[in-house]
Design brief:
Length: 231
Amino acid sequence: MRPVMLLSLAIILSCSLVNAAPLTIVEEGEGRAAIVIASGEEHARQAAEGIQKYTEKMSGARLDIIEEGQSVPAAKIHIYVGHTAAAKEKGIKIPSGFDPSIRPDAFDEEGYVLKTRGNNIFIGGNSDGPYRGTFVVPKEFKDKPIHFWCGGAMQEAWFWVNGQYAGHHQDRRGRWTPYGFNLDVSALIRPGETHSIAIRVWNQTDLGGLYQRGFFWSPKNDAALEGLLLQ
């Protein structure tokens, strides 16, 4: 969830959420907001700490992090992070769940939410299971080599196709260098059929995860397959 949180932070600080009145979370070096995290949700805490850290770096103000259920300052803007009860009360659905089966509604449990309700900001994404998705390989790619390219995975990633292990990537070059990797998945692909993919990422830095586009391609004719582009 962390890359999403950093994107969300930039949007919040610009005070320009679409179809929403401006919400100023820091003014003249003073914090005007508190971060409220879902109770017992570790990913929400990690995301909140990222928002807190980079807000302080940019503005000098350190926003309080409060677990939902504790006393929350009434006069402040509240930034709710994760699957909070407050989001549920406002009718805001935060994606959740992990079902690896191939089905029409597979994408309903993916993605993230960034919404405002009055002086409340709601941020959340699905932290259940690995990065995943579905795609169809056209029949025209039969008997052609098929590779998967990912432009950015920090620091370590594992990749599966239809539940079968496809490969591993580990970057040892340090932060903010190209983290792309390429895997030959020809043996696992059946052109003309729908496939599921899953990527598990391990990262111990402040920033990271799966943060660049991924796509399938055939080196035989340098053609990208029409299907899923991981974001």
